[in-house]
Amino acid sequence: MRILFVDDEDRVLAGIERALFMTDRDWNLDFAHSGAEALEKLSDTPADVVVSDMRMPLMDGAQLLRQVRDNWPRTIRIVLSGYTEQEAALRALDVAHQFLSKPCSCDNIIEAIDRAENLQGLLHDATIQGIVGRIGTLPAAPRIYIRLTELLADENVRMEQIGATIRSDPALAAKALQMANSAFFRGTRSITDIEDAVERIGFNMLSKLVLANEVFGDGNRLEIDRLRLNAVRASRLAGAICVPFAPIETATTAALLADVGRLLPDIDRLCAKADTEGRGFPTHVEVGAYLLGVWGLPPTIVEAVAHHGSPGRLNHSAFDAVGVVHVAVSLVNGTPVDEAYLQKMDVGGHLPQWTETYRQQSEDHETT
């Protein structure tokens, strides 16, 4: 695992080197004092992770990480900075996967790099890592985008209205959660609920976030609308069945984002091509989870998204968010529920009730 730290202040790099020297990690650490030096080092030997200061002369962190994204898209890109003005946040948003604030403890740096290492272990295919690495936003349904911008322009808009609109689209939900969990907002806890994300970000920043990012895709609009509708249905069902098994915020958000990988360009073609070659290519589920992970969403959500298709492969001793999302997404998508897994988790008797809940919710939707 090669990690390149970039900062124009010698004392900062020296402090990081001292702090990480004593850690029990098999890491190859390297240091650069400028963006130009960092690019030169990367040209010689690409890094798995680049941690860059935001405010540097000649080439700042956003400019550096943009070149890293374009030339080494598999590299995890992290901003480490005390420069937290809104313009800096927006400039770095599309090129940084995660944000760490100065002063930053050694433990926080280690945790961020550990997560990056775990994410790279989730997907081993270099092609998919490269595709995901170049993605800044996912396509959103135009009606949702237009509705959100209209609401944000209304001085009397309520938090509940904004949250409900974002929750209705997995692409916007993922981006809002990425922003809310960044160190730019200096939160003391991970954010898993959309309305909490809106509250932490604030209306003004959220407006700039939406307007600054291209959220329209070139894909089949009917297909995107269908995916969005199923995502909302799965989220609603997860909220109805998660108690007392999992936190409602985690379950509903993970269910909303469970199939977000479907929004990635050419994902079906790439998977089909890999299947014919017998390379054991990951599905859109793992790809979507990888994207959410590099965006810095809470591990509980990433885990539930990554494993909801095959919950039995996890060594969990109790039914939790992974199982809740599995049931909700399976019922909504009309795919088989892993009844053996439910029996092992001692919740098999709940399946008829959950199925009936979904039937009633579907009828309610049709009549509204």
Strand content: 5-15%
Secondary structure tally: strands: 5
Structural class of the helices, strands and pairings? alpha/beta
- Main sheet record: 5 strands, parallel
Can you tell me the overall shape?
Answer: globular
* Order of adjacent strands in the largest pleated sheet: 2-1-3-4-5
Q: Provide the low-confidence segments as ranges.
A: none
Rounded radius of gyration (Å): 21 Å
Mean pLDDT: 82
The H/E string reads: EHEHEHEHEHHHHHHHHHHHHHHH
* Alpha-carbon distance between the two ends: 53 Å
User: Helix fraction?
Assistant: 55-70%
Total helical segments: 19
Describe the structure.
The chain has 368 residues and is of the alpha/beta class. Helix content is 58%, strand content 7%. It has 19 helices and five strands. The protein has a five-stranded parallel β-sheet, sandwiched between helices. Helix 3 packs parallel to helix 4. The termini are far apart. The model has no long low-confidence stretch (mean pLDDT 82).
Describe the secondary-structure layout.
Elements lengths: L1 E5 L3 H12 L6 E5 L2 H10 L4 E4 L8 H11 L4 E6 L4 H8 L4 E4 L4 H17 L3 H8 L8 H11 L6 H9 L2 H11 L13 H8 L1 H10 L8 H21 L6 H10 L9 H11 L6 H11 L4 H9 L13 H13 L5 H6 L6 H17 L1
Parallel strand pairs: 1-2, 1-3, 3-4, 4-5
Could you provide a short overview of the structure?
The protein is α/β, with parallel strands linked by helices.
Entry keywords:
alpha/beta, 19 helices, 368 residues
